[in-house]
Amino acid sequence: MNLKAKAAGILGTGHAVPDKIVTNDDMAKIVDTSDEWISTRTGIKERRFAPEGVNTSDLCTEAARQALEQSGTKPEDLDLIIVCTLTPDMTIPSTACIVQANLGAVNAAVFDLYAACSGFAYGVITGTQYIESGMYNRILVIGAEILSRFMDFKDRNTCVLFGDGAGAAVLGPVPEGYGILGMDMGADGNGGKFLNIPASGTAILPTDDARKKGLTYIHMDGKEVYKFAVRVMGKTAEKALEKSGLTKADIDLLVPHQANIRIIQSAAKRLSLPMEKVFVNIDKYANTSGASIPIALDEAHREGRIKRGDVVVLAGFGAGLTWAGMVMKWY
Ligand code: UT7
Q1: Which residues form ligand 1's pocket by a CB distance below 6 Å?
Q2: Is residue 217 classed as helix, strand or coil in its secondary structure?
Q3: What is the CATH number of domain 180-329?
Q4: Which of 36, 125, 126, 283 has its CA 20 to 30 A from that of 141?
Q5: CATH code for the part of the protein at 7-177
Q6: pTM score
Q7: Given the residues 60, 97, 257, 301, the one annotated as active site
Q8: Of 263, 271, 273, 272, the residue nearest 228 (C-alpha)
Q9: Which atom of ligand 1 is found nearest the CA of 33?
């Protein structure tokens, strides 16, 4: 029995990345690394870094404007804005408040959501609840990061992996049978130690002293995160599929979190998908955390890789540790 009041779907997407391209060869001038090491271990060829003066909210605003335009939504028609980021402009106000003001979305309630690289998928699942319940009609979900400001450019284990960018989607009601059909999300807080920024809140304030000790930068146990990712990425997609009533054979396109091509390949294998059915752009942008899935989704959509009726699966994992997956029939 379907108890849904309304089905929720994505009505439009957009993305924004900084102009500045930084290649693996550029990174090799900063730390002891090489294009060969980075591309064979991760699939990354280049990334974008935002210049000083460009903030997370600026990337959000540009991505949002594209998604609003594509979906035919006026800013004042938005009921809710959810910004999924671990690199907000500041602690207060939330980045969602800044974006609301930039867009003139005067009727929208707003909040930021912290789920790291799983953030956008968490955000869409959250937004879906408001549409399905009938409470809201138009919701803007944005995933955005400026990770370059939290990278230790002396640590080759982390600084070659990340990039900056934003992606956005407008959610709204769609005819029954379309839109988001299955969802899964979860977390294992015991894995928090594997990926964190120690001095970024009340536990350790981001003082000059903390900065000198390297505590204001991303710290990661890459091997542990890798093992976790391989375990959960395909699994969360499978759980979402099960809830949607569809099977692996129904998938037209997998849009995974872009952290490492080897992790993506292992998820594809678990889902019995040929790589032609997997969208990959890690080579261009590296790991943009909460922005990676919506940037990939927008590129896939604009390149014509997604059309009405296609079954699209999103799957992400990240710091927390967190994971989320969803299955949608594109409207
Ligand atoms: O969004 C979620 C966030 N993060 C992730 O998803 C990351 C998940 N983990 C990974 O993607 C991989 O574990 C990494 C790409 C981070 C590392 O790949 P790996 O195959 O697990 O490499 P490794 O950690 O085993 O390192 C192998 C060697 C080490 O040297 P030794 O100790 O064997 O002599 C590292 O010091 O590679 C060295 N190394 C590098 N060499 C050149 C580490 N980083 C670099 C580098 N350039 N940038």
Answers
A1: 33, 37-38, 41-42, 117, 156-157, 160, 195, 220, 222-223, 225-226, 229, 259-260, 287, 289, 318
A2: coil
A3: 3.40.47.10
A4: 283
A5: 3.40.47.10
A6: 0.96
A7: 257
A8: 263
A9: 47
